[in-house]
Task: structure prediction
Amino acid sequence: ALPIYTPKRVLPRAPEGDRAAAGRHRLRAEAGMAAQCVTKVELSVSCDHLLDLDVGSKSDPLCVLLMKTNGQEHWFEVDRTEKIKNCLSPKFCKRFKVDYHFEMVQKLMFGIYDIDNKSFDLSDDDFLGQFECTLGQIVSSKTLTRPLVMKNGKPAGKGIITIEAEEIKDNRTVLFEMEARKLDNKDLFGKSDPYLEFYKQTSDGRWQMVHRTEVIKNNLNPVWRPFKIPLQSLCNGDLEKTIKVECYDYDNDGSHDLIGIFETTMSKFKEASRSSPVEFECINQKKRQKKKNYKNSGVVSVKQCEITVEYTFLDYIMGGCQMNFIVGVDFTGSNGDPRSPDSLHFISPNGVNEYLTAIWSVGLVIQDYDTDKMFPAFGFGAQIPPAWQVSHEFPLNFNPANPHCAGVQGIVDAYRMCLPQVKLYGPTNFSPIINHVARFAAAEAHQQKASQYFVLLIITDGVITDLDQTRQSIVNAAKLPMSIIIVGVGGADFSAMEFLDSDTGSLKSITGEAAIRDIVQFVPFRQFQNAPKEALAQSVLAEVPNQVVSYFNTYKLRPPKDVAAK
Result:
């Protein structure tokens, strides 16, 4: 039966336009790009009503930022602001630059000191108060104002601190439409198979490849599909920086033949339009030296070159998008009797099992992006009281009208309370709980706003029964603002889960319909048994930012509070 609760902040409205026609968008980040995908955030700090500890004048405050991540025991200093003389309400000019990782809990400590000497050591300066939070809390609020406290936790007088976050980015992207004509034929049988490579020059003069187009088979007059290159990657945002384009004939054995080269700038590219393309002669220097009447090795024509702004994950989060976290727990018989130490549901003397560890690990990261921190939590595959019928989507708190749990601790408490009250049974059906979350994601999709995104965490021992129905559910859900994380516990065969996490190609339903986005991330818990507790969350959440951006960009939805558009 469909539970009768209403999720947070979701108001259905009639659909606008055909969403299914948005086409196939896959944004799986390539491993080679990972190093370039670190997001940098700038934090500016101001304070009000600081303690006045100077006699005859006001305090001379400075702010120091400390950080610890990945379960580190000790804080390390990131940076310090300047000192502001005689001021109890300082607005510090220097900003802190930090690397932001959605998939980690990054703890920050802001310490305010009254500087009365020239030594670097702060231990001999008066302490005016501190504030501890996570970077996730700051970016999800965009502006955070909180009271300062002393080291014993008591209020630092009436002192307050305000932290504002801003992403450091150049989110301009260049959209190209290009074709070529009369390219040299490099193949003995048939015609050349041309593709283009784009290079930018590094500060030490080397050429660094930034983009490769598709290969057009057997064609001396190729028309490439439209493609995008980030402006920062292409020319470091400098429209006058030299760009080199090389045209090759593709060979299966890897010995690609150079057709020709041209150099240009972004400002020259930008002159292109469909009515007036910009054209470049491809020059092959070796051929030019050999042939007296050499003209070129073909012409590359730029029909369109348009600079557009693409929103980032932080644009959406800082623009007011809420992340809704939902948990689904596998209560099927294959987990084993919860009273037996061999069971995956057995709670050890120190109060943990793999299910609880997965809930804590993922929940602690994602809770910072949800303002009310009320999380729906469900079980599936058990016989539940009072009629002892099998249910595939029952609330862990047994309250169909309100399955929300208060924070991650609330989910844990509901799980512990539920476990002795149900009978583990079967089968293992995923589709009911995926469809359940999809109903609310669909209601949100009709709003045509980028204000909500749903992340469903399914924890399972992996023996799935309704694979065909689940495939269809995932293909349908890919058109909605949601992602699915599957954590496999125990030592079962997880080949079905690997199949759902379609890293090698698009997941298809039983009827052959392909998912327009990749929304499933699967990890086996056993890979993380001896790793730090943060490692699991980093693995399963690393792809969520790209999945959020791919959905909202597919449907051209702007952040609710679109600062860039103002």
